[in-house]
Design brief:
Elements (H helix, E strand, L loop, with lengths): L9 H5 L7 E9 L5 E12 L9 E5 L8 H4 L4 E2 L4 E2 L4 E5 L30 H14 L5 E7 L1 H12 L4 E7 L7 H15 L16 H15 L2 H7 L18 H16 L2 H13 L11 E7 L7 H13 L4 E6 L7 H4 L3 H11 L3
Parallel strand pairs: 3-6, 3-7, 4-5, 7-8, 8-9, 9-10
Antiparallel strand pairs: 1-2, 2-6
Helix pairs in contact: 3-4, 5-6, 5-9, 6-8
Length: 361
């Protein structure tokens, strides 16, 4: 199977295309690890119409580099007539706490008028969900039809089901897990070190116009290698040289080198280095040993070629859900795209999601 061209357009797919964000003042927040934020702003977007009678609200939780514009980065799954049908459901996307697309994070201004930078406290996945829950309450939503998310977003979706049992009817969690293993932590630490060792990092207190862009670009290259599969890279690039694309290119440079450099540079222009540090540490720290107490129904999906969040991690989540007495199903999807398949597969997982959301309604 030829690789999906969108696999190699990560920044183009995920970069905000239009600003329809709204903002909610979530107030002061005491954090799970003991820190405190005196004020939290949440950026969010909505699609569709809320129907309190049908309880049709769905919260979308994004991966580490995502944002509130879920209809953009998950465009194969969210929209009119799609698996998460905005003609049928009221869909809410938020930018996670610690992010850099409108929600309070390290690049935000603190009450003293200076960027938080190194003063931004350690946050958890639970803190992210607490902020989302305040938003949902402010919107007047007392019960959610579903929460959905992949990768980091899957951890948030999982946590939603345990915070207030009964609040969430269904949860779809794709390409995610209950806790990071040593390899996953290792990938994140390598990316963090690329940023932390950039001289422009300045302990996190870099000026807005002089960020550690070089380190952030390398961090994204490391991450990107883990998002795709070996077969995708091989079919797209093999050992071909840049001169096959541009006659004036370095004859010793491979196409995959140029591709990674391009992706890294583009990412460094749209994302904040501090957010990468804060969010990656939050998901490395996340761990759930049990789903006891949950009253939600679960759908877990995974991909056979995903080496970043291997299928057995979704299988474990499915087993935890069954052990907790919850209805649960797990589908391991055979696609060769790697971890990013969860963003691109609107067909196989899309049909699973469509059926899951419609069941019993």
């Amino acid at each position: 199977m030829e690789p999906d061209p969108a696999l190699f357009e990560e920044n183009e797919r995920t970069a905000p295309k239009e600003d329809q964000r709204m903002y909610f003042d979530a107030g002061a927040l005491d954090l799970e690890r003991g820190g405190h934020l005196p004020s939290v702003t949440v950026a969010y977007e909505t699609w569709g119409e809320f129907d309190p009678v049908r309880s049709n609200a769905i919260v979308i939780c994004h991966a580490l580099s995502g944002d509130s514009h879920a209809i953009g980065w998950w465009d194969r799954l969210i929209g009119p007539g799609k698996a998460i049908d905005t003609d049928r459901y009221f869909v809410i996307g938020t930018n996670a706490l610690g992010g850099c697309q409108g929600t309070t994070g390290p690049a935000s201004l603190a009450p003293d008028g200076r960027r938080y930078g190194s003063r931004f406290p350690f946050i958890t996945v639970g803190d992210m969900v607490e902020v989302q829950m305040r938003l949902i309450a402010n919107l007047g939503i007392e019960r959610l039809l579903a929460v959905a998310g992949g990768s980091m977003g899957g951890m948030m979706a999982l946590e939603w089901t345990l915070r207030l049992p009964g609040l969430v009817e269904k949860a779809w969690i794709t390409a995610s897990g209950r806790a990071h293993n040593a390899m996953q932590i290792g990938y994140n630490e390598a990316a963090r070190q690329a940023v932390l060792r950039d001289p422009k990092w300045r302990s996190g207190d870099y000026p807005e116009d002089e960020p550690p862009a070089e380190g952030l670009a390398v961090a994204r290259m490391i991450g990107h290698l883990s998002y795709l599969s070996e077969s995708s890279f091989e079919r797209k690039f093999g050992r071909r040289r840049q001169t096959e694309i541009r006659a004036d290119a370095d004859p010793e440079q491979f196409q995959v080198e140029g591709y990674l450099a391009h992706q890294g540079d583009k990412f460094a222009h749209r994302f904040d280095a501090g957010s990468l540090i804060v969010l990656s540490r939050a998901i490395d720290a996340y761990e759930r040993q049990s789903l006891a107490g949950s009253l939600s129904e679960y759908l877990f999906t995974s991909f056979t070629s995903d080496t970043l969040y291997p299928s057995h991690q979704s299988e474990t989540l499915h087993a935890l859900a069954l052990a907790a007495g919850c209805r649960s199903e797990w589908h391991d999807i055979d696609l060769p795209y790697g971890h990013d398949a969860f963003l691109l597969d609107g067909d196989v997982q899309g049909e699973r999601v469509r059926a899951f959301l419609a069941a019993g309604r």
